[in-house]
Amino acid sequence: METTILIPTDFKMSSIEPLKSLLQFQKEDTIRVILVHGIYQSNSISDLLFFDQSDLKLEMAGKSFLQRVYNLESELAPKIESIQILFFSGFTSHSFDQFAEANGVDRIIIPYELEFDWSHKKSMDILPFLKKSKIIKQLIAWDNNEYSSKSNQAYVTALV
Q1: What are the beta bridge partners of residue 2?
Q2: Which end of the chain has less neighbouring CB within 10 Å, N or C?
Q3: Structure confidence by residue, pLDDT tens digits, 56-75
Q4: How far, in Å, CA of 126 to CA of 110, rounded?
């Protein structure tokens, strides 16, 4: 059985660190991971016509983050079917629900007490949309201290 999970990302390594250890708690055969980042879209018709997600991924995430995602996808196969990076640009809960439905999201992983960095000029905080969604949410927490980072421990705290 395949499951699609959605994880918010700010393109920092800390937002994908727990992915490996999170898999030990998953009972599904294969998992499709969607890393989502909220962006403000321009209202300019020419900007919208020439919008290219791959250019924006490279600009916002950087080569090292994209390489780490690629390596994780290879390392965690066959448990992970794919890891995609997508952008959400809506302004309402309904638009987020449509985004999630179109991408077949079964569960949302919300990192507990992780401080996201939405400082890029196009970045938008999507956590309010995730929390309001009717999709099953799984809160996870992990320590970023030296011991926990080395052992890559994640702790599943609650299903909401």
Answers
A1: 30
A2: N
A3: 788 888 899 999 999 988 88
A4: 11
Question: Which CATH number is 136's domain given?
Answer: 3.40.50.620
Q: State how far the Cα of 27 lies from the Cα of 9, in Å rounded to an integer.
A: 23
Place of tokens 């600009």: 59
Handedness of CA 114, 107, 149, 76 (dihedral sign): negative
Contacts with 105 (C-beta within 8 Å, 6 or more apart), sequence order: 4, 5, 6, 34, 135
Residue-number span of the structural domain to which 103 is assigned? 2-159
Which of 5, 4, 1 has the alpha carbon at shortest distance from 109?
5
Among candidates 87, 160, 91, 103, which has minimal Cα distance to 129? 91
141 vs 36, 95, 105, 110, CA distance in Å?
A: 18, 28, 21, 9
